[in-house]
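Notes continue from the previous slide.

Worked example: a multi-chain complex. Inputs as given:
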Amino acid sequence: MAAAETTTRTKTLQPLPQIVARTVERAPTGWLSWLTTTDHKRIGIMYLVSTFAFFLIGGAEALLMRVQLAVPENNLLDPSTYNALFTIHGTTMIFLFVVPIMAGFGNYVVPLMIGARDMAFPKLNALSFWLLTSGGLVFYASLFFNPVEVGWFAYAPLSTGAYSPNGGVDAWIFLIHLTGIGSLVGAINFYATIANMRAPGMGWGRLPLFVWTILIYSILLILALPVIAGAVTLLLTDRNFGTAFFDPSQGGDALLWQHLFWFFGHPEVYIMVLPAFGIISEVLPVFARKPIFGYKAIAAATVVIAFLGLLVWAHHMFATPSPDVLLAFFMISSFLISVPTGVKIFNWVATLWRGTIEFKTPLIFCIGFISLFVIGGITGVMLAVFPVDWQLTDTYFVVAHFHYVLVGGSVFAIFAGIYYWFPKITGRMMSEALGKFSFALMFIGFNATFLVQHSLGMEGMVRRVYEYPDIGSLAALNLVSTIGSFILGLGVLVTVVNVVRSVKKGTYAGPDPWKANTLEWFTESPPPVNNFDAVPRIRSVEPMKDIRRQVERQGALEPPHAAPAPEHSVTA
Amino acid sequence: MRSKDPQPRRAATLLCALLATLAALALLAVPASAGWLSPGAGPSGNAQKINTLYWIVLIISIPIFLGVEGALIYAMVKFRARKGAVAAQIRGNTRLEIGWTLGAAVIVVVLAVVTFAFLPAIRNPPPSGPEGLDLRRAGLTGEPVVEGGVGRQPPVPEDGQALNIDVNGQQYVWRYTYPDNDENDLNNVFAYEQMVVPTDTTVVLSIRAQDVAHSWWIPALGGKFDAIPGYTNYTWYNVSEPGVWGGRCAELCGRNHANMVASVRAVTPPEFQRWYTNKRREIAQANEAAARQRQQVESGTPAPGA
Ligand code: HEM
């Protein structure tokens, strides 16, 4: 603490920019310029827009399922359509929305946050995006033939040729491969960028926490993706070339698939939620007007979560015929992961403590995130107690649990990120009134949809069923859930309207509308093609605070982004 | 952070009181087991133990939930930006970090200890009760009918006596095979969908699948156990009173997954014996009839009624 204090009070009064652009390119225009761009900001925007479109498609699928489940013994949808819907919904939300939208934020924000000109490999970056898009297209094209019906974890032997002969599973495998290679290449790119292209003075201890989480996200992707790529390749050869890795009648092993899938699948969950943590860690201190509480603890917790996240996969398999020692190991490792996660939550609350909180939309979404994520975390610990899991797994309790984590957690953080960085990306502010209205609808709708699902699970409703009998209070709770999902959907639409409206009509944001802490607010909004004309030397985790303080001290009247004058750039 | 003015201290006492009341209320709710707050349990020891374990975990988590949400709400109200308010520029507090890390670790250790304390009673079947079926007299001491399959060891009650029923998941029905004392596995009593068991008798299920993965689940009688082709899974129950308990397949197994239902009907031992002898006779008769028919077909004489 003391060390950080002295570095910010450095004696140098003049900013010392280190990197200077010699020419400023003009931003190209026209649709072809988007197809061929290698600019991280444009690629970032394309990521954000296309993944959000997938979110809306996945949301429409979810609402269709909720309509089917609104009343008992409904026959609106037939079982194969319903099975296809939850499979496509789950796959879309994970592989085409949450994971890649984090890459979208990362693409746009990481180079700006670390004061870089672009990503380390701009062309690879474009490749990542186009692989993602083609994965999505291949997958959705299967809608016109035989969509996949085996659930997002595609358990063998149901997913093998004997039981799912049509091509839907193969289309799903291609989606995994295409988006997987895209993510892998992207992850390597992030890693290289963060490791090598940080602004002068930005040591690991001054890296913004969002960048920390993108770094760990990348490492997890690099570790986990090859495993799923191998697993789906085995499945592909089982289906098409006569191998029998997962077919017990020919000496294969059905449980092997589950181990391989979840060895990837659980790190995938942290891949979806760690960058969300990063967004929260950036937004909270800005609006509490306080430094983040426990920077080191939060960064360390990120690393520990990622490490433990690789060791908990079989908690998805507590009901399988596995020995008790294995179940006990995975129970304990799952318990352990709640410790660093709890540490993060405590630190966030402590960041708000004794601050002066400004209730702007990004902050409100962050608070929504914390309050909902706690619930998802607690139900997660309950599920880790494996005898309890025997009752609750594969029921709506689990559906509720992971939606609290993925929607209450990741999606609320994504919305915080959208409201927070929109002014930087477009140069305009979003409407606060619409933003708050959207939050209110989403928060109420979300809880109405998913809180009651815990009870549905405890009343014995299993997941992935297209109909249920009219016993107990299943009918009433399901109706509440369906109504809630439409309120939630409406809340999402309000934000869509807000975005569309604000792009053209929002008030001008200026470079730093929030008085934020990190370097992306140093440049104009939207940033020029070259990002920065000059990059200041970094002296703390909050470079913008330092710069503002410095400008104040110099008594300069100019706005902060104009402060560093090129004359000082000679010092290296 | 640690300097305390009386205001927050009073709030803290209030919060603690609130938490204590809530915990007490939750404890009172335990007997009202089934329903919206817990998975509930029928009249079988394993399900009841799981339910108790669930309640303990829930009660431990309630103060954590209230603590975090309470602190969040308190911070939002107390520390919102006001004129003249200055944000405290605190960057952290090592003692606090260590404190809550240890606190969380302690809770986790408690949870693990409680779970291990409950595990044996959930995993290991007790011997049948005095009112239960005398398996030796009934000739029902046979081993489970399991061909191959790896997995866990079958649980055996201390007295070594349990009714071993083989549960076989198939798209989209459950088949139950009862033991007998001969080597022939083709003449065993079997049933689909509804399993009939004697009360007060320990029943051990060996759970298998013959096509895709399924999951056996009767909520009132204990947890889910996956039926994975190539593996054998086990569970048990000991139903103390007659009744019928429903359940369904809990692992996606194809298009009719939603309709793959199961139920367990517990009846008194004498009634079970009647049911069982009846079934056995029917199967023997059917087997004889089939054998006769086969003979006739083989010897060329037309079957009666053909
Ligand atoms: C927008 C609101 C959402 C609603 C109303 C919703 C609703 C649903 C419903 C009804 C199911 C099917 C449950 C079943 O039949 O077992 C489902 C499954 C699922 N959802 Fe969502 N969902 C939403 C958002 C999300 C998001 C944002 C994610 C992920 C990041 C997500 C991930 C999943 C997954 C992984 C499954 C499991 C699919 C499977 O069983 O294979 N959902 N959701």
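Summary box: Confidence is low (pLDDT under 50) at residues 1-13, 562-572 of chain A. The two ends of chain A are 28 Å apart (CA to CA).
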